[in-house]
Amino acid sequence: MNIKIWDITTGDNPRTFASHKKRITDIAMIEKGRNFVSSSLDGTIKLWDCGSGSNFCTLKRKESLNDGVTSVHITEKVKETAGTETSSRYPEEFGTENKILLAGHISGVISGFDLCTKQELFSVPSMGGSVESISGVHDQSCHLIVGYSDGVVAKWDISDISKPLKKFRIPGKNVINMSLDNSIGLISNELSVFQIDNNLEQITLAKDDDQISGLKVGEKLYINTNFGDIFVYSK
């Protein structure tokens, strides 16, 4: 399974990253993009150097090495713990200090890693369904919104994982992707937008269940599908 970088002006493919053994599920850039992480259903999270194309580190959930990874998210450490790790261990590594890597798994567990030391710090317990999407909350680095395969959406504080801060269920929907702008969640199974803090459904755009990811840029929503189409919705 490969990841490719494309030049959108020429159509050239200057770099290909190959190492995962099963379907690649997500990618997250680290700072300006010298490094990035990718996840796969083979249970691995890989750190890559864009310049050389090398995979310089591979992470797995220690309690279940083959638990497929469905999504990844990078957030800043809370102030109380920032600056406590050792320096980066790899010469290809840039910008990993004071960052936490969160990985959602098929089991429903969320693993939290220190991106600099590569140590697994904590594990958010499963709520039943597989994790399908992890998104951060604007200006609250320790808060996450997590979408699950059984339609559950939960808000977690990673400084206290004993129970979610808030949770609700979207009946009959599989939360396959979610992107956030402040507290707005995009649930792209039927393409519905929810206000996370009060569970208020704001808009629903009727579509077939073929959406696979969504991105909000300004006042527009960009949705891509299993058929290779990209739809743009204006507010």
UniProtKB/TrEMBL annotation:
Which InterPro entries does its entry note?
A: WD40/YVTN_repeat-like_dom_sf (IPR015943), WD40_repeat_dom_sf (IPR036322), WD40_rpt (IPR001680), WD_repeat_multifunction (IPR051179)
**Record's Gene3D superfamilies?**
YVTN repeat-like/Quinoprotein amine dehydrogenase (2.130.10.10)
WD repeat residue intervals: 17-49
Tell me which UniProt keywords the record has, alphabetically: Proteasome, Repeat, WD repeat
Q: Which domain of life is it from?
A: Eukaryota
What is the protein name stated in its UniProt record? WD repeat-containing protein
Q: Which Pfam families match?
A: WD40
Per the record, GO CC terms? proteasome complex
Lineage runs: Eukaryota, Fungi, Dikarya, Ascomycota, Saccharomycotina
Q: Which family does the similarity line name?
A: Belongs to the WD repeat PAAF1/RPN14 family.
Q: Which PANTHER family match?
A: 26S PROTEASOME REGULATORY SUBUNIT RPN14 (PTHR19857:SF19), MITOCHONDRIAL DIVISION PROTEIN 1-RELATED (PTHR19857)
